[in-house]
Amino acid sequence: MENLLKVTASPHIRENVTTRGLMGNVIIALLPCVVASALIFGWQALLVVGVTTAACVGFEWLYCFLAKKPNTVGDLSAVVTGLILGLNMPVFMAQKIWIAIIGAFIAIVIAKQLFGGIGCNFVNPALVARIVLFTGFASAMTTWTFPAKANDTMAALGVDAAAAATPLQLVDGSGASLLGSYPLKDLLLGVHGGVLGETCAAAILLGFAWLLVTRTISAAIPLTYVGSYAVFSALYHLSQGTEALGAVVLHEVLAGGLLFGAVFMATDYVTSPFTLKGKLVFGIGLGLVTFGIRTFGTMPEGVSYAILFMNLLVPYINDLTRQKALGQKKKKKEAKAA
Fold this sequence. Notes:
Order of helices and strands: HHHHHHHHHHHHHHH
Largest sheet: none
Number of helices: 15
Radius of gyration: 22 Å
Distance between the termini: 43 Å
Low-confidence stretches: none
């Protein structure tokens, strides 16, 4: 009876969920993308992912050792960062692997540890590393390798495979996009150029299913992100009188890094809102910014910059969508409005 009447500090309801367990589920969810990249691009894909993962773990251990901080390698967060970073690179990076190691240093030391380590970074570490590498080593980060079947597909579309980029950038002689003509099956299976993790949509969806089944992430952000982008894209193409509207929008969703970013980067616990309302606002903002960059910007892909931009707004989104505590008095303006 005494134990029932004991008053303790919150939280009163606890779960047996650990950082290591959550990161382990993310690692399992990323494995289909790793396997798919190896099947599509060859063993060099495994080299890139392996080096970035090992480098991230190494830099995390070394920083904690030099700073005399508790070592956090065991929570597996560095492994997740390394996998995501490697999957955000083209297979060509195997020929300049030192660039991948620089990316690991940026992700772990600069974007994560210098801000206090896991839970204190305000942007996704792998995302920061990708943007820095894309800016500083643009040639290496945009040198695409194409599977043999992709070369045949682009030849049928009248595009020179040697000079082509990802499906988002395929255009005909007049500058019109050829994305809608790209075989949908090839987009699902990853038979095209791109970074290692974004090509095979089927592998990404398989990982997404695992994260949902294990309740590692909420479906709110990925579904809102992809759904809002699809709506904005559909409205734009409708205003332009685009034929086969549904097919064009579906091709845009499957091409590029939209799915990979929505599932594995936008859902990062630390850099995404913690309320359902905030997640919905966050997802719609991601869809809007990505659509704006893809449609009106000079770059064909806008996922990385969209997530980075919305990461910076997360503290404000959390503050505006925070649920009022039970019994908390409303502000005067809110009381008058009620």
